[in-house]
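Instructor's aside before we start: the two examples that follow are unrelated to each other. I chose them only because their records fit on one page, so don't look for a connection. First example below.
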Amino acid sequence: MPPFESSSFQNEWPVLLECASPQPDAQKLCALVQAANGPRLLELAEEHGVLGQLAARLGKLDRDSILRETQRALLDGQRAQNFVTLRMTAELFRVLDQFASVGIGALVVKGPVLAVRAYGDPAMRSYGDLDLLVHPRDIRRATELMMAAGYHAAVPLAAIEAGKIPGQYLFSRADSKLLVELHNDFTLRYFPRRLPLERWFERQAYVQLDSREVPALSVEDELVLICVHGAKHLWERLMWIADVAALVSRQANLDWERAAFSAKEVGAGRMLRVGLGLSAALLKLRLPDYVLEKVKSDKVTAKLTGQILNWLPAAGYAPPGLFERAAFRLRMHGDLLFAPAYFLRLMLSPTEEDWAAGAEENQRSFLEALRRPFRLARKYGRGGKS
């Protein structure tokens, strides 16, 4: 999708918001659809990652109110997503079984587990990779297992042995589009504080996925994680807000005190409040009164929410500038004393993109750290989606 102005999709954006809401108004949605352009609506939904929600909501409307071409495209998209979901779920089971066979503990985050928890259907949410949380001590063994299973490791063993920390340990297969990402408390660097990995494993839960239970985060820890993930990406896609709204709305026994404690552990209280505030403002998420009061009482959260609403509809094609992005990161941290240190860590902690080619073992870390700000300036100084 090329860059566009908000006015060019003013009829389609309200449709997406209604479809992504946990409590959609069918009568209102029917009227909104009548004014929308079918191809434009599908294009915008794909950019925002909410084709599944769009298909589910429109599928319940009177068929005469939806263009036939739009119906056909949504049906084709659902079939394709169902096929991808089945294939990725089968691969997830294989990877978990391989890890378990050698005693590697893993928790499934986001992806199919989040889709089941938030929407009740693993195919409802689109995702392109499988994310697993593992202990740092198990990364090398896990990498060897993945390579033996036919995966290409984006982070070579030499880099792991040298103690280099990537953004994620990415694995891909040449014979398919399957991607697997391994994470730990070092790779998840967008958490203001290092996450308490052992306690997250202790609080783990199990989620029923295709008649099998898979290990996952507790619901409260998952909520914090997806809010940090949304903040990492500046909430530029509606799917991340929809995930928060759907996850919260389907959890009858969500422990709000535990969620607040989990956020406090990693310094992500404001990130959690922003995620909840966006969900309430845009998607009509109903929050307990005392939770909503905490969200509204944070004036910085309200200001950040307003900023996000300005760039959100463009799905990353009208991103904030480099300096606005930097200021956003500082405010999002929520602690004036430690926010600058958090920002500098993000700015200067090199990932695999900053490593010199062929120098996984010997490249000096301070040179990599110096290279990173310049790469980020090139990446985010262009304007528009990269």
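Example two begins here.
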Amino acid sequence: MKQQHELIPMVTGEYLKSLRLERKLSLADVAGAVFLDEKLLGDIEEGNADHIALLYKNGYIQTYARFLEVPADEIPALLDTAEVKESDLHTIFAVPPKRNPAEKWLRASSYVLASLLVGTLAWQFTHEAVRLSQNGSRLQSGGATMPTSEEVKNTSTQQERSGPVNASIAPLGALHAKSKDGMDTAEQAWAALSKPALPDGESLLQLIVSADSWVEITDAGGQELEMDLLRGGSEREYHGQPPFRILFGRASAVRLSIDGESVDLTAFTRDDVAQLSWPQEQHAEVESPDSD
């Protein structure tokens, strides 16, 4: 058969097909052995594999020939040596046109004018702010006094009759006037707003957690104020009816305050777990976390 191949040249597909038939193998047998598609091998044998890329086509032929035990020095003669035509290069991005010198000058002039306008507006704003600040200082140094309780009452009555007063018409000196305890009017108003108003009979609990800790808080009415894992860095506030049943999973990382007074958890802590009822009697009883 080899002599016949040398005398009568055969194309690659016919040669591979003849070797397969000599071994009495079907295309399905070869496809299963080399893990290639049966139709693909048939196209190679019939010479209909031009639709396959040359690189992949030669790879399939090499795999097929090795399986049929074609000598290694004869395999290069079976490969398709057709030259691959490289695709023409196309320009994707258009070359930007050259800018006109007049356009560059116009753009630079626009930037300069915009910068001057922004600078002028900034100067006017700063000048106006300084003027208002100076006027406020003069009003404050003119001997502003704190209004008496009777004046405040009359003002409140007048406001109820005439409606709300715009804060912008209040004199700056009155806003910055100092009281006996050293706090000005604005600081007193902020302190009043920041202090929460609690219903009668309720207490305020404040927690600061520096590390992850399990927290359980229940008030006298059985309401669960908290039952969750609080992350480190959390700050929480709760209010409810005392006494409170409290449990902290990592007591060393928890700071507790009730109605503004700090609570020492040392007497109620065992194995870094604190369990207590607050308020309670003067003597502290350490409760086991596993007890009911």
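The beta strands are 203-209, 213-218, 224-230, 234-240, 244-248, 254-258, 261-263, 269-270, 273-278.
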